[in-house]
């Protein structure tokens, strides 16, 4: 498989491209969604023995989601980005950060790669809650491990981060009650 051509068909907050792909002598078109890469972190408050998550309305999901802290990677530096995002979103300065894993969110159509981190915090520097100019209206929630294990997570990066944490702690997530 080879990408023969790539054209921008829409450029706004996000970018869409049309690709011409050649495979086994045939050519066909596909669309590609570009949103930039993201840095995300599961954040542990060492003083309170609790994990920090942010709740915000996500228009594509049509509801509020509880998520790990995250943001679009700036200056090709995921660690610098996640340190900045943690302070902006939670108000805490980062004491320690460790890189966990990188993964693509939906590689069949989207170019986004998430750089996932574990971070520890203890000192509040500001109010947090996100930036007004980025139209962020975040609520910060602190969850002890036992509550974290009971949540019904809907966001993929958060599920991956929580599964990683559960594996580190050698505990299991509880299957939430679901209605079909």
From TrEMBL:
InterPro entries, alphabetized: NDP_pyrophosphatase, NUDIX_hydrolase-like_dom_sf, NUDIX_hydrolase_dom
Residue span(s) of domain Nudix hydrolase: 34-167
Cofactor requirements of the protein: Mg(2+)
Binding-site residues, Mg(2+): 70, 85, 89, 136
A single GO cellular-component term on record: cytosol
Positions of short motif Nudix box: 71-92
Superkingdom of source: Bacteria
Sample GO molecular function, one term: metal ion binding
Database matches in Gene3D superfamilies: Nucleoside Triphosphate Pyrophosphohydrolase
Subunit description: Homodimer.
Official protein name in the record: GDP-mannose pyrophosphatase
């Amino acid at each position: 498989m080879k990408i023969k051509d790539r054209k921008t068909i829409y450029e706004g907050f996000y970018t869409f491209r049309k690709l011409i792909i050649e495979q086994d002598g045939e050519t066909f078109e596909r669309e590609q969604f570009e949103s930039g890469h993201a840095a995300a972190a599961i954040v542990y408050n060492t003083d309170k023995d609790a994990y920090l998550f942010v709740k915000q309305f996500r228009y594509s999901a049509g509801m509020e989601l509880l998520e790990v802290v995250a943001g679009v990677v700036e200056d090709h530096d995921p660690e610098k980005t996640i340190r900045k995002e943690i302070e902006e979103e939670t108000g805490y300065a980062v004491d320690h950060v460790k890189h966990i894993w990188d993964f693509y969110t939906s590689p069949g159509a989207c170019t986004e790669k998430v750089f996932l981190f574990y971070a520890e915090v203890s000192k509040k520097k500001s109010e947090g809650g996100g930036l007004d100019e980025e139209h962020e209206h975040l609520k910060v929630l602190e969850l002890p491990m036992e509550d974290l294990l009971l949540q019904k997570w809907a966001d993929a990066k958060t599920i991956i981060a929580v599964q990683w944490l559960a594996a580190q702690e050698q505990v299991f997530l509880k299957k939430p009650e679901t209605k079909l």
